[in-house]
Amino acid sequence: xxxxxxxxxxxxxxxxxxxxxxxxxxxxxxxxxxxxxxxxxxxxxxxxxxxxxxxxxxxxxxxxxxxxxxxxxxxxxxxxxxxxxxxxxxxxxxxxxxxxxxxxxxxxxxxxxxxxxxxxxxxxxxxxxxxxxxxxxxxxxxxx
Length: 144
Description:
Helices cover about 15% and strands about 35% of the residues. The protein is α+β, with helices and mostly antiparallel strands. It folds into two domains: about 1-30; about 55-140, Jelly Rolls (Sandwich). A hairpin with a 5-residue loop joins strand 4 (about 85-90) and strand 5. The chain is globular, with a radius of gyration of 24 Å.
């Protein structure tokens, strides 16, 4: 009788441990939402390039006063300003300033030029949602 009781207690304890592990594996840590959307900063609808999907993640670092030069993106781009600030000139669409903590879906197929207008280096996490063979960034001579 005592063996059965010990066996039952051991089984119950083991089941409790298994259930505890199963619960721990099915929960997900809380998320800090940075951005969720389907339109760019210029109110363009997000459209993915045709072809084999290719996601590219990088960190852009710009010194104070440094500029990106005029360029456009051929793929949707999520950006999160980690440190510093950047002011982006979108030509006829005006300028916008983004600072540490800001997240955005950058303009696609629209010429723009970013400048670190702060006093410290700017670091930006960028994630391109493109396709193989599609240029994520295309340098341009100017805003046209």
